[in-house]
Amino acid sequence: MKAVILAGGYGKRLRPFTDEKPKPLLEVAGRPILEWQILLLKKKFNISSFIILAGYKKEVLLEWVTNNQQRLGISPMIATESEPLGTGGAIKHVEDFLKSEDEFLVLNGDIITNIDINKLELNNAIVAISLVPLRSPYGVVQLKDDRIVQFVEKPLLKDYWINAGIYKMSSDVFDYLPEKGDIEKTTFPLLAEKGLLQGVKFEDAYWRSIDTLKDLEEASAEVPQVFSDIL
Predict the structure, then answer these.
(1) Mind listing the pLDDT tens digit for each residue in 124-181?
(2) DSSP class of residue 55?
C-alpha cells in the first residue's frame, strides 16, 4: 500500500521555527516529524512506497529527502505545487500515480502517532477516518456537591472524538476531490452526506498534533519512550 504524506502547509503558528523550513521538518526528540512518520510506517507496517506532497519551502523538503532517503531506505516521490491547492487539490494532483491502487493511506504531515493503520477498514465506504479522543487543553476540576475533590490534568474527553489526520482512501475518492480546496471542507462533508465516510475510533493510541512550541516540547519528552520499538 502506498502512503501519501501531506507536507505542504505553512505552519504559521510555529513561526519563527517555520520561517526557514516546512513544519514536517521540525524536530521532535532530535528527528523531523516526517522521519518519525516514515520510520513508523516502514518498520511497523512494512510500507515502503511514499508520495510526499510539498508546497511551502518545497526546496528545503526536497533537499532533506534527497540527503536522507538512502539512510531511511526509501525512494519517495515528491510532488510539488506551483500554487496552494489545499489538501484535496494536492491529492487530486497525484491521481495518475494512485488511481491504480485499490486503497491508499493519507496522513497529515504534522502528526506523530502509533495508530494501528491495519484497523482502518473501509467497510464499503470511500474513506475511513481515524478518530482519537479529544484531550482537554486545561486541567479539569471534579466536584462533589460544591466541594472540590480532585484535579485532573488535561484528561481525555472520551465522549468527544476528533479527526486524527490519518485516512485510508479508496481510489473512488478521486471522483469527490476538488481541483483546489481542503478535503475537510469539501470531500468529507459530501461523503458523510452520502453515507460513504467511515469513522474508526482509537481510544488508547498515542497521538500528537504539532501545532505550537508547547506541542514540540511535550512530544519531544514523550516520543522516545512511546516509539522505542522502532529506534
Answers:
(1) 999 999 999 988 878 888 888 887 888 888 877 778 899 999 999 999 999 999 999 9
(2) B
Known catalytic residue at 154: yes
197-201 vs 127-135, strand pairing mode: parallel
Domains in the chain, ordered, with CATH? 2-131+160-230 (3.90.550.10)
**E-state strands within the chain:** 2-7, 27-28, 31-32, 49-54, 77-80, 103-108, 111-113, 127-135, 140-144, 147-152, 156-170, 197-201, 207-209
Q: Are 50 and 38 in contact (CB under 8 A)?
A: yes
Length of the chain: 231
- Which residue is catalytic, options 12, 154, 185, 214? 154
The backbone torsions φ and ψ at residue 200, rounded to the nearest 5 degrees and listed phi first, read -120, 120
Closest CA to 103 of 209, 193, 198: 198
Single out the residue of 222, 35, 203, 208 nearest to residue 113, CA to CA: 208
pLDDT digit string, tens, across residues 54-106: 888 889 999 999 999 888 888 888 898 888 889 999 999 999 999 888 999 99
